[in-house]
């Protein structure tokens, strides 16, 4: 059972999460994370760290050695952690396969918040990217971007225990954060989107298209291929190399933004097969020419 708070963007949805979690204690964050551009959460992304500082930050979880760092922070008073299952802005990095299972085993009382603003709504072949991982049962889920289908909407989902005890959440009238948050037009469209992206055949098609990208690029990209479904990337040796290749793609009529040391490949989920295939084959051709 969960309760939702409506807002106007993913950034505001992150604000709501941080305000709520900070009532309980310091929030553990992940190096390289991006959680929006507005007030509360500006200290939890790569731009600045104003509230708790880097003393409550962990390295990106590539292996279970990160559990030692989390243990130190829990012992120092941290009560929650916020994480992107696939960290997009830093270069399309996925947490290691057993990360959420290890969290649940090692720290059963730690509140787990996942930010799905980038990766939710079917982009990975699952409604939410955390569903790719065994043992992932988050207490808080942040949703933005695609949920509104182009209209302003963010949603922060809390489990019942948090929602029923948080003074901040209880102070909100009807679960709405702001004058136009949760407006009927945005919510009506979101309802249609959720029905569509929750359809198993639709999700299977996203996964199939993601596999096609992998099949075309894997022979020349090797371990540089990252992500899942239709949110994936190709890693380069440096940020500047990724940026230069992104510029080359634009000159060839393909828009693939540089994210950290990778280019992001994240086409519309309903992209036609031939359009996707032609674009990925062109990317492969350009990589082979490097």
From TrEMBL:
GO terms for molecular function: identical protein binding; pyridoxal phosphate binding; transaminase activity. SUPFAM superfamilies: PLP-dependent transferases (SSF53383). It comes from the Archaea. InterPro entries: Aminotrans_3, Class-III_PLP-dep_AT, PyrdxlP-dep_Trfase, PyrdxlP-dep_Trfase_major, PyrdxlP-dep_Trfase_small. The keyword Transferase applies. Keywords: Aminotransferase, Pyridoxal phosphate, Transferase. It holds the Pfam family Aminotran_3. Its cofactor is pyridoxal 5'-phosphate. This is Aminotransferase class III-fold pyridoxal phosphate-dependent enzyme. It comes from Ferroplasma acidiphilum. The lineage of its organism: Archaea, Methanobacteriati, Thermoplasmatota, Thermoplasmata, Thermoplasmatales.
């Amino acid at each position: 059972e969960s309760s939702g708070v409506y807002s106007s963007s993913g950034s505001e949805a992150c604000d709501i999460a941080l305000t709520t979690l900070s009532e309980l204690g310091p929030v553990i964050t992940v190096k390289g994370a991006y959680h929006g551009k507005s007030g509360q959460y500006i200290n939890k992304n790569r731009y600045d760290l104003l509230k708790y500082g880097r003393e409550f930050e962990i390295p990106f979880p590539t292996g279970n050695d990160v559990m030692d760092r989390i243990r130190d922070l829990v012992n120092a008073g941290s009560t929650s952690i916020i994480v992107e299952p696939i960290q997009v802005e830093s270069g399309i990095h996925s947490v290691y396969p057993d990360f959420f299972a290890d969290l649940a085993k090692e720290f059963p009382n730690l509140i787990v918040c996942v930010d799905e603003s980038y990766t939710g709504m079917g982009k990975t072949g699952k409604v939410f990217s955390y569903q790719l991982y065994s043992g992932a049962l988050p207490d808080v889920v942040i949703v933005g971007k695609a949920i509104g289908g182009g209209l302003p909407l963010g949603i922060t989902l809390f489990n019942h225990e948090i929602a029923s005890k948080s003074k901040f959440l209880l102070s909100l009238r009807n679960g709405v954060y702001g004058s136009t948050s949760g407006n009927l037009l945005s919510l009506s469209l979101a309802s249609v989107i959720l029905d569509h992206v929750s359809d198993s055949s639709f999700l299977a098609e996203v996964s199939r298209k993601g596999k096609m990208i992998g099949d075309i690029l894997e022979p020349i990209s090797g371990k540089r291929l990252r992500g899942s479904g239709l949110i994936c990337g190709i890693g380069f040796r440096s940020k500047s190399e990724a940026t230069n290749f992104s510029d080359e793609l634009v000159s060839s009529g393909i828009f693939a933004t540089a994210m950290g040391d990778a280019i992001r490949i994240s086409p519309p989920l309903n992209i036609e097969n031939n359009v996707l295939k032609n674009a990925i084959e062109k990317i492969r051709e350009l990589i082979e020419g490097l």
